[in-house]
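lol ok so funny story. i was supposed to be doing the assay writeup but got distracted and ended up predicting the structure for this chain instead. priorities right. anyway since i did it might as well share w the group, maybe its usefull for someone
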Amino acid sequence: MGKKRKRVQRVQASNEPPTKKQNSSTDPPPEAHHDPPPEAHHDPPPEAHHDPPPGVHHYQSVEEVPWDIQKYWNQAYSIFSKYDDGIWMTDDSWYGVTHETVANTIAQHVAEAVPPGRSIIFDVMCGVGGNTIAFALSGKWKRVYAIEKDEATLRCAQHNAEIYGVADRITWLNGDCFRLLGLDGAEMDGQARSFKALASKLGVIFASPPWGGRSLRYPLRSSLTCWDRPWLPRRGSL
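and the output, tada:
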């Protein structure tokens, strides 16, 4: 069980556990020209790191993985097909991230469903970047805005987007999505007004919120406001 198996070649994602591989370090691509809303907090992609920051991991053998997430680690290549290139994850993100093939399917469905004129998408609880990367890869959006409240998780998403070559298509925002989009009931600042106006006129808001995790014992209730009810089919599905 302690022996690490060498990964020779993979053409597509598999459910086999990841194996050790030397991480590569490359300079991040330059940020594409796109004017964010006034006062927007735009974090450029970080420089590539050899070692993950505190709370972030790139597990390479099962002995390193906490017992309660080992079954998720065994699916690493279906979560991120480029896992061996140095994908970063927090322990909580293993059971919350959207698997790559599912994320790509969602991105395709969203692109086909949106009304004309919608060219920007907000991934408001982006996690370690599963859906965000898929949206950026789809080619549908002029800009992808990724919002994440946890700083370590956001750093994972930024790093993972670099690995997939789409970091320059994404604007990263660290904060509460409800506050940033002016949906928390508080008085809006200039940034919140700008983002809310952008989302209302040109944007689509996508949310894949955390479901509670390994310790969830009670049902959660959420209150959602649908801004685009006129173009949703009656009793239909997205």
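The mean pLDDT is 77. The helical segments are 70-73, 76-79, 100-113, 130-138, 151-163, 177-180, 190-201.
back to the writeup now i swear
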